[in-house]
Every structure is written in C-alpha cells, then in structure tokens.
Amino acid sequence: MARSLVLRASRSAWLGMLVVMSLLSVGCGTAEDGPGTQPEPPATSAEPAVTEGSSNVPASTQPATTTGAATAPSAATTPAPEREEMDREAEDPAGADPEAGPDPKQGLDPVVAYATESWPTDWSSRSVDLSELLLGIGMIDPRDAIPPIDDPIFESLDEAAEWLDSRAPGMLVAIGGDPRFYPLSILHRHEIVNDRIGGIPVAVTYCPLCNTALAFDRRVDGEVLRFGVSGLLRNSDLVMWDDGTVSLWQQITGEAIVGAAAGTVLTHIPSAIVSFGEFAASYPDGQPLSRDSGSGLPYGFNPYEGYSSRSAPYPFFTGEIDPRYRALERVVAVTIGDTATAYPFPLLSEVGAVNDTVGGVPITVFWGGDTADALDTRVVRDGRAIGTGIAYLRQVDGRPLTFVKEGEVFVDQETSSTWTLLGEAISGPLAGTRLEIAVHRNEFWFAWGAFFPDGDVYEG
User: Fold this and answer.
1) What is the pLDDT, as a whole number, of residue 460?
2) Residues 419, 169, 391, CA angle at the centre, nearest 5°?
3) How far apart are CA 12 and CA 19, in angstroms?
4) E strands in 281-430
5) What is the DSSP letter of 411?
6) What does DSSP say about strands 339-344 and 456-457: parallel, antiparallel, or unpaired?
7) Rounded to whole angstroms, how far apart are CA atoms 169 and 380?
8) CA 396, CA 288: separation in Å to the nearest integer?
9) 221: closest CA among 260, 268, 180, 177?
C-alpha cells in the first residue's frame, strides 16, 4: 500500500510538471518546438477579426497545449527509477487480484493510464494497440479541455464578412438545402461542433495537427451522441470521445477504436475546405458559424504558427514518412469502400482537374482558388495561398462526365456545360445542377501515409 501511495504521488507530481511545461510551451513555443501564443497586434479598424477577445486564453483550453512539451513520458522527462516503478505497476499493479485476469489497460502508457483513470471506458474492447495512444494535454482527465461547441450560433454572410476575409478557410457542410460554413479559425480553438443540419445531428470536426476536416452523423444505434476532444492522440490525429458509451473514436477514419462501440464506424457526411469568398458566392443563403461561442476565446489567430512550414510534424508522430512529398504537403484523399487514393496538391495545381475512379465510382477533383493556409502565419487571413482541392462524384443523371479546367472554371466534355470550383453548373444544358461532394479529406501527407499505408497515390 505504501509503495502504491508513493507511486500515485510521483505520478501526480509528473503530471503537475507536465501541465507547467505545457503552460511554458504556450508562452514560448516556436515553429520547430510547438505553437506559441504571443501578444496580439495593435487593433486597427481594418482588422476586426484580430481585435476580438483577449490573448490571455486559459492554457487548459488553448489548442496550443495539445502540442509541444505535453508528450507521453520518456527517459528525458521521467527519472529512470520512477519510470521503472510506473512500468512495473502497469504490468503488475500493487494489490491487484491475480485471479482477475489480464489488465484491460495492458500496453497503455502508464501516464495515459493514470490521466484516464476515472474514465468508465471499456479498455478491453479495442481495435488498436493501446500503446499507440499518447497524452496530448498534460492534465488528469483531459476530456474537453479543448471545449467543443455544443450550441452553435450562426450569422448572415454580411455579418461574417465583417471579420472574415474572402480567403479565410472553413468547412463547407450542406444537408437538405442548408449550407453552412465553419471557419477554421474557430475550429482551431474547439475542434468539434455538435450541430444539427437539415434535421440531422452532425459532428463537425477538425484536427489541426493533421489538417483533417470531417463531418459525421452523430446517430449510433438509435442514440444521438455528443462528441468531445479526449485529450489523446494517435498518429498525431485527434481522438474523440462520446458521452454515451465513453468510447474513443479516431477522427480521420470515424471509427471507434476503444470502448463499448469499438469497431463501429460513423456515417460520413460530405464536406470540403473552401474559402469564405467561394462559399458566399456559391451559397448566397448560406450560414457561417458565429464567433459568439460563449467561450470568450479569440478567433482569427493560428495557435499553430509556422506548423505547415515545418519539415516534420510535431513529435506526437513517430512513424516513417514517404519521401515522395514533404511531410506537411496536403493531399485530397478519397476513400470509397476499401479503396483509398490520394491526389497531392502539387500535382493538382498543375493539371487543374483530375478524372478518376475510386472503388469503382467515377470521381473528379477540382483545383483552384486562393484559399489561405490556416496553419501558416499567426493571423489566418495572412496565410499563403494554398488553393482549394475538392473531390466530387462526377456521375450526373446516370452518366459519368469528364472535366477539363478552362481558366477559373471547369467544362465537361459531354455537354459543354460550365462549372464553378464549388461544383455548380452556371451555363450550358446542365445549368443549375450541383455535383455531389465525395467524402474526402485535405490531410497532410504524413497522416495519409500513417492511416492509409496501402492506398494509391495519383501520379498523373
């Protein structure tokens, strides 16, 4: 019992040190060591987006705390004798019943196990190796330390234009004639929005570390789940949790990887990363997410300044990186059935439009625009232009279409109709028709390789 109390005290001390290190990383982070929060620039009348709120964001809710120093323990952060004791207790906990069977948390990093000790998650039900889970937020029970938005408020395009630049990136999600725009500068700070669109309960999710923006139907076995940020990462990707089964879900795949729901895959809802200007032009009745989130957090800033310019992701990712592209190069990744194909941004920028088939389904990928990089400069609207890459299903009225890019628009060879970047026919026999967005992602190259190692890469 005494040894157990000492170990618990040492773990508490380690986690306390982890929180302090996280706070330091928020204030002192660099492009190479992790993101930092610096004093905001002087307010000007031309910069309503960057004058909102305060720069003194609580560290426990600051996205920057998910990177930098707050990693799982290593020989560099935990004294060797303590680490050996922690590992020993993880394998053979003091006072454990030898007839109780194998430890359901076997393989889980001791610090992750301690931080999640209060969770009622069924750790014995899992589809991944628990050793792959890392602690991204240095605190005991880190669930929702990055707070999701559960009661989103939307505003008009004119109201959004008061703080959003036309190049501002965001998620487009449209269901049943209800198009919505979720600025990435808001998702930076929350990562998850639990919403209802067209009567469907939806989780709008964004992982800045992988640049993965995905929307899911929140209904599972007849129950509407509420999703939050677990504080854990796997392959640097957001691991979500739900309040019904307290299972853990991999954001990039939508699959429950630990817990009672393990093996369940959420229904994907098509979405795309587009600029606010493109959204406003294509959806004049669209609704952007308002900054009125009730959190008091500042929006318009990138807590991960310089991240997309790094030569490698943050140390949460330790896998090998395919040298064909830069680790943080973006791809349009399409997964249909058991087939996955990546279309690298550098190639798309050269060809403009790709016509392909994935899993037997005809798809096209459009390229264009000047959408700003949400993970580049400190002020999001100042980010370098990275363009817009969107995948669509290219079958219309039962007939596959073949697209070519002509200037800033796209023309199908079958009907000579003209289409916009956001998939709307604006002239020709198909005028008024919209292409259906294919389920896809704009993830970083390293994330694609980690989760889809056997996937195809389009080479032209």
Assistant:
1) 86
2) 40
3) 11
4) 287-288, 331-336, 339-344, 353-358, 361-368, 388-393, 395-396, 399-400, 403-406, 409-412, 418-419, 425-427
5) E
6) parallel
7) 8
8) 29
9) 260
Reference 252, options 321, 285, 206, 320; nearest CA is 206
User: Which residues touch 284 (CB under 8 Å, ≥6 apart)?
Assistant: 157
Q: Which residue type, as a one-letter code, is found at position 300?
A: G
Q: What are phi and psi of 278, to 5 degrees?
A: -65, -40
Tokens linked to 424: 């709307």
d(CA 236, CA 263): 20
Q: Which residues, in sequence order, are CB contacts of 66 under 8 Å at separation 6+? A: 136, 137, 146, 209, 231, 233
Tell me how long the chain is: 460
> Which distant-in-sequence residues (6+ apart) come within 8 Å of 206 by Cβ?
171, 182, 184, 187, 188, 191, 192, 212, 213, 214
Question: DSSP label at 347?
Answer: H
**Residue 242, SS3?**
strand
Instruction: Give the C-alpha separation, 61 to 231, whole Å.
Output: 11
Band of the pLDDT at 36, cuts 50, 70, 90? very low
Q: For residue 405, how far is the Cα from the chain centroid?
A: 29
Beta bridge partners of 200: 197
Residue 79 has pLDDT above 90, yes or no: no
Give exposure, 121-147, as e/b (b: 16+ Cβ within 10 Å). bbbebbebebebbbbbbbbbebbbbbb
Rounded Cα–Cα distance for residues 180 and 253 (Å): 22
Question: Hey, what are 320's tokens?
Answer: 């090998």
Q: What is the DSSP string of 106-172?
A: TTS-HHHHHHTTT----TTSBSS-GGGEEE-S-SSS-TTSSPPBSS--B--HHHHHTT--TT-EEEE
389-447 pLDDT tens trace:
999 999 999 999 999 999 999 999 999 999 999 999 999 999 999 999 999 999 999 99
Are β-strands 331-336 and 339-344 bridged in parallel, bridged antiparallel, or unpaired?
antiparallel
- Cβ–Cβ under 8 Å, residues 437 and 270: yes
**Other C-beta atoms lying within 10 Å of the C-beta of residue 1:** 7
- Distances 71 to 74, 190, 456 between C-alpha atoms, Å: 8, 20, 32
Q: How far apart are CA 146 and CA 229, in angstroms?
A: 6
DSSP of 170-223: EEEEEETTEEEEEEHHHHHHHSEEEEEETTEEEEEEEETTTTEEEEEE-EETTE
pTM of the predicted model as reported, rounded to 2 decimal places:
0.83
* Closest to 429 in 3D by CA, of 411, 417, 418, 420: 417
Q: Is 62 helix (H, G, I), strand (E, B) or coil?
A: coil
